[in-house]
Description:
By secondary structure, the chain is mainly alpha-helical. It is built from nine helices and no strands. α1 crosses α7 and α1 crosses α8. The relative contact order is 0.17.
Amino acid sequence: MACALALAAIDVSVAQPPPPEPPAPTAPAAPRSWQSLSPPQQQLLQNFQGRWDSLPPEKQQALARGSQRWITMTPEQRAGAQERFKQWRALPPEQRQLLRQRWQQFKALPPEQQQRVREQFRRFRQMPLERRQELRRQWRQMSPEQRHNVMGRPGVRRYPH
């Protein structure tokens, strides 16, 4: 129940975290040549072709990973990603920044704890809409102290059902 309340604070239609990315390399990213991209990647990233060599290596690597991920998606997954991006773009900049911070906090959690959060999120999404709305309402009515008590220490910890 407590984890459900915490998850209720997240508007799951917008705040669903993107799929996990591979761990960031410890060494600085190496530049990636345009020719090293597959033809489907080049087609997806054609708007970047003229300035590809001037992009920071980290940006090149992120674009290459994202384009590869896009290529492997099903049409349904692509439609979902496009809808989430549309919702993201509609958010005010302050809310986008808050979600970025929350994502960074999530990524800083140990892998086991990330997995627990994902599982709780999955269970929350499977609840009937009315139940999720009620949990969100309860969360919004809590004081910061009550929320802190529900959450315990930073991150999400397991609570008995």
